[in-house]
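User: Could you check the structure of this?
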Amino acid sequence: MIKKSGTYGITFNVNLAGSGQTTPAVFEIYANARLIASVTVYPFATLAKVAKIVCLEKNEVLQVKAATTITLYDANLTAARLDSHKDESSSSSSFKCKHESSSSSSTCKKECRKCHEVLGYASFSATNGRLFDPDEFIPLNNEVIAECTDISPIGGLAIKKSGTYGITFNANLQSGTNATFEIFANARLIASVTVLPNTTLAKVGKIVCLEENEVLQVKNATATQINLFDANLTAAKLDD
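Assistant: Sure, the predicted structure tokens are below.
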């Protein structure tokens, strides 16, 4: 449930069972009865991800529904209230939420006026998995969204604006793998997560301070090789 109106960065990840889905699987994200995003998983694919910047009102509830019959392994939804610097000299008549239609409420329009939201979402995926050696960095260079951030050529998110950020990381591993991942801002360790045996999924979330030009990267901190199918890293500059 949303406790404070404003501009939010929304991300959703889903991992379907196996790769035998023969028809498209559709997921829809709602704020109460309002559809704000959707994502389709096409036949024989197992992973889907979506990111969007939207305006949300206090007491709205974010939910996700499957519009088709599916077998689901894992799903996660995040919402981060973004830092939105507004031009206070503008008159009230100029209030306009650029993320929603003209039917958005006046509160939302005021919150979203001339925003400079920061949301980065980079991912890696390999249909049959890829082996990573110890201390090897994950090439998170597939762009899902990059608002006021850059996707680093070396794999990760390049921070363009200093501030307080909400960081999330998700990974999907081969079954039975015991793995540890470490998240760095340049050479600075900011978070880690361990996947225990008989578990295939890893996820971690943390609020950290990041500086302009720092690059967020994730490495395999396991003592052995791991087989990784999918991973994603997000960074959202939070409203102070």
